[in-house]
Amino acid sequence: MNLKVTSMFKALLKTRMAAMGAWLFLRNNSMKNKSHSKLKIIGFGLLMLYACFAFMTMFGIYFQQMAKPFFSLGLGWLYFTFFGMTAFALMFIGGVFMAKSQLYEARDNDLLLSMPIPPRLILASRMLMLIIMNFFFELLVSIPAAIMWIRAAQVTALQIVSFVLVLLALPFLSMAVSGLFGWLLAISTSRIRNKSLMTVLFSIIFFGLYFLLFSRANVYIQQLILNGKAIAGSLGAVAPLFWIGNAVAEPNVLHLVYSLLIMLVPFVLMYYILTATFIKVTTSKRGVAKVKYEEREMRTASPSSALFRREMKHLLSSPVYMLNDGLGVVFTAIGAIFLIVKKIAVLALVDKIGYDSGMITVVVIFGICFLATTVLFTAPSVSLEGKTIWIVKSMPVSEKDILKAKLNLHIRLAAPPMILASFAAAYVFTPSWANLIIMIVAPVFYVMLSANIGLICNLKIPNLDWVNETQVVKQSISVLLAMLFNFLLVLIPGVLYFALLSGSGASLIFMLGYTLLLILGWRLTQRWIATKGAAIFQGLG
Amino acid sequence: MLRIKELTKLYGDKRAVDKLTLDIAPGEIYGFIGHNGAGKTTTIKSCCGILRFEEGEIFVDGISIKENPLECKKMLAYIPDNPDMYDFLSGIAYLNFVADIFGVSVKEREERIKKYADLFELTEDLAQPVSAYSHGMKQKLALIAAFIHTPKLIIMDEPFVGLDPKASHTLKGLMHEHCDNGGAIFFSTHVLEVAEKICDKIAIIKEGKLVVSGTMDEVKGTSSLEDVFLELEGDVNV
Question: Where does B2-85+152-237 sit in CATH, by number?
Fold first, then answer.
C-alpha cells in the first residue's frame, strides 16, 4: 500500500514537474524547429538570469544599508528579522495568486479526484511545487542577505546552520499564509458576478501595501539605525519576530526551535484542514445568480470596431492581463497628475540640478517613455487567442485587420496618458514650441513602436496551448522580450545623450533624431506586421 | 458548392490528407466518416481556410480558398468539434460579434437570434457569460452563430457530440431546411446511424485517403452503414 502511495505521489510530482518544465523550457506545438527552440531556451535563460540579477542587486543594496550599522550596534537579530520579513513578503506576494489558482481552481482537479488518488496526495504534490517556487523567491532575498552579512560581521558555523534551517522552514510559513489568503480570494471572487473587478481590487490593495512599505523602507531603516536599541526593546515584545532574528544572530537554540515551530506548525495545520475539506472546496459551485436574458435593441458595428471591442472586452475581463501588462498606463497618468500637483517642488529641483530647457525636454521624453515600457498589451495578445483562434480564422476578416485591432487597443489605451503627461510637463516647464511638439510626438511614436514590437515578439514566439492566461500574460518569453526591447529603446539613447551630449546645446537636434528613428522604426515594423506578421498569424492554430 | 481537388496536407513527413477529392453540390448533406486521426478535422479545417495545405485546391462556390479566402469565408460557417469560445463574452455579445463581422443588419440579427435561440432553448441563457456554459450550451451557441449569417455552406466537425436529444433533433431539421433552401452541408461524424438517416452522400476516409464515396445507396447498398464501414476498415487493415 505504501509503495502504491509513493508511486502515486511520484507520478503526481512528475506531472507537476512536466507542467513546470513545459513552461520553463517553452515546450509547445508552435516550436517545431529544434535548433530554433534551443535558441529560445538560451534567450529565455538569459532573461531569467537578468531578472534574478536585478532583484538580487536591489535586495543587496537594501541589506547593505542595514548590515554594518546593525551588526556594529549588536542588533544582528534585527537584521535577520528584516531578512525574514522581506523574504516572507516576496514569497507571499509572488505566491498568493498562484496558490489560489493551483490549489483551488486547478483545471485538472476534477480529473485527478476521479482517480483512485487520496486527495491529500494531490494537495501535497501541488503544495510541494508551490513551496519550491517560494524557495526560489526566497533565494533572491537570502543570497544578497547572506553576502552582506558575511561582509559585515564574523560568521560562525552554528549561525550558518541556524540560517539555513530558517531558510528551509520559511517557505512553509509563506505557503500556509498564502494558502489561507488564496482560499479567501477563491471564495470571495467565486461569489460575485464581476470577478475581475474584485481581483483587481485585491491586487491593487496588495500592490499598494507593498509599495507603501518599500517607499518608506529608507525612512524605517534610518529610524532603526538611529534608535535601534529602543526599537529592539519594543520589537522584543513581538516575540516571534525576535525569536526568528535571534535564532540566527546569537544563535539561540531555544529561539531556533520556537522559530521552526512557528513556521512549520501553521503549514501542518493548514495541510490537515485542507486535506479534510479539499473535495468540498474544489468541487462546490458557488455560482452567482443567473441573469435572465431580456431582449434589447441591438446595434451594429463595423468588423474593425467589432474586432477592437473584442480585444477590449478580453482585457477588461482579465485582471491578470490588466495588472501585468497595463500598469504603465496608470503610472503615467499618476505621474502626470503628480507633476502638476508638485509643480513648485519639481521646478525647485530642476533649478537645483541646473538643467536647461533642452535637457528638461530630454528628461521629460525619456521619463514618459520609461513609464510606457511596462505597457505590454500587444506582447501576449496573439497567444491569448489560445484555443479560440479558430473563431477569427474562420471569419471573413483579414489577418491584417485582426492584428490591427490588437495594435489599436495598445495605442488607444497607452497614448492618451502619454499625451496627458506631455501636456502636464508643458504646463510645468513651459517649453518652446519646438520642444513642446517633440515632447508630444516622440512619446506617441514610442507607444506606437512599442505596440508593434510587442506584437512582433508574440508573432515570433506564440503559445496557443496555455492552460491559464497567466502563462502568456505574465510568464511568457514574448512579454519579457518586449519589455526588454522597450527598455533598451529608452536606455540606449538615454545613456548616449547623457554620456556625450548633455549640456552641449544639441538636445533639440538629438531628440529630433530620436523621434525620426522612432517613426522609421514604427514604419518598418508596421510593414513587417502587415506582410510577414499576417502570414505568421495565418499559419497559427 | 464545395469542391476539394487532390487535397494534400502534410504534418512534417506525415501525410494527414493524401490527394483527397470530393464534390459537394448545393442541396446536399454530405457526411464525412473515418476513424480517429483519419484526417477528417484536417480536411475540414483546410476547407474553412483555417489550415494551409501543401497541394491541391479547394473551391467554395467556384472561388479558390487559397486565392480568395475572405470571399470563401463570407459564404461558409464552421462549427468545430470542441467549440472553445470567448469566455469573456456573454452569449448575446458573442452572437452580436459574429453578426457584426458578417455585416448582418439589426433587424435580421434580432429575428434570427430569436428564432434559433428559441429553437435550441438557449434564449434565457444568452445574458450569461460563455464561461458559465456547459459543453452542450457552447455547441448550441456555435450553431446559432453559424446560422445567424445564413451561409451557403455549413461545415461541421462532429456537430452532434454534446447535444441533448432534442437539440440533435432540432439540428437535423435545420440541416434539412438549409439544404432545401439551396445550401449545402459537409460534416464529419462517428454516429453512423445519424449519417445513415440524414446524409444524401457520404465519404469514408482512412489514413488520409478516400476509401469510398457516393450516395448512401451506392456506398452501403442493402447493408447497414456500420457493416460497410467495419468491412472497409478491415479491408484496408488486411
Answer: 3.40.50.300
